[in-house]
């Protein structure tokens, strides 16, 4: 019997004692190699749950078992801030640095995971500064690079990964996510778009009324 990568049992949480609970008796389990969604309306607590999972919030009741190390978790928030003076190709350099990869090693990974459409779109924006490209292009680039180059990661937490990304970039992103989960990585992502889950028959938890 395999040990779940993440297991939450009877979790309750409130930001303050006198405030209504954000979560009440919430339980879930995520296995290694799963692609699984978290569906909920804006304000339902999806981002708060991700903060709890990554250890950003600790004053909760119940149990939260993380069977992975801090270095095996990559958490990408909905809002990703970058210096506008950076060129997009320098974002690649930064991610290489964070993951202790040489440029040659990085391109080996990119060639393995990206198809021609990825490279065509990357080539169009790589020399541009980040402030000159759209919000969606910027998010697509950062998420795609992190998914591809964070080789030590076992769990990716993606908070609304497709927000602001146009349909073509979105489809490419899902193709990449399917590739890395096929390689044994786990992707837990939040969304408020039901069609995004049903189109590819992605299993999901639904966050509603303080629980799942």
TrEMBL record:
GO molecular function: ATP binding; ATP hydrolysis activity
InterPro entries in alphabetical order: ABC_transporter-like_ATP-bd (IPR003439), ABC_Transporter_VariousFunc (IPR051782), P-loop_NTPase (IPR027417)
A Pfam family that the UniProt record links to this protein: ABC_tran
CDD domains, per database record: ABC_DR_subfamily_A (cd03230)
UniProt keyword Aminoacyl-tRNA synthetase present: no
ABC transporter domain mapped to chain residues: 6-210
Record's keyword terms, sorted: ATP-binding, Nucleotide-binding, Transport
Gene3D superfamilies: P-loop containing nucleotide triphosphate hydrolases
Protein name: ATP-binding cassette domain-containing protein
